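Notebook entry, structure prediction.
Reason for the run: the old model in the group folder had no record of what sequence produced it. Starting over properly, with the input documented here first.
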Amino acid sequence: MIFTRLCGLVPLYILGLASPMQRGGSLIPVLLILIGTVWGFFIHANIRWRFGPLEWIVATPAFHHWHHTNDSPDVINKNYAPMLPVVDRIFGTLYLPHDRQPERYGIDEPLSPSLIGQLVDPFLPSPRPRHPASLDPSLAADTPESRLQHQDKRDDVSVA
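New structure, fully documented this time:
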């Protein structure tokens, strides 16, 4: 969150639209933070309203719900832009069907019931396979044992 706020505030200071040393202060950074906070609550709202052509200009709840969906592999990792869907259009991650809403949200892995567990969990080794080799034993890591097994299989085939 700090990084995100800096990305919004630093350009204001660079362009001279705000000044941290200004005696009376500037209202622009305050407005930016307030609008950004309200917008964050808005796009996470659990409402099913559609906003027509406005959805292609600014992020709406319908747009952002697809970012959190777990419906299928085809719709995961979509709609990253916090405010402007055109960014997702440029990078090929835009997904906003008009005829349906997401059916599932979240992740498939079990989630710790405690807050501390949820904060620590991303830093622990993942129990799920991270590489196709772990799904198929024939693609397992290159170890002396696996080389011997593969050699034995080749010997059996060449003898036959």
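Summary: The chain has three domains: 1-43, 50-111, 115-159.
The old model has been moved to the deprecated folder.
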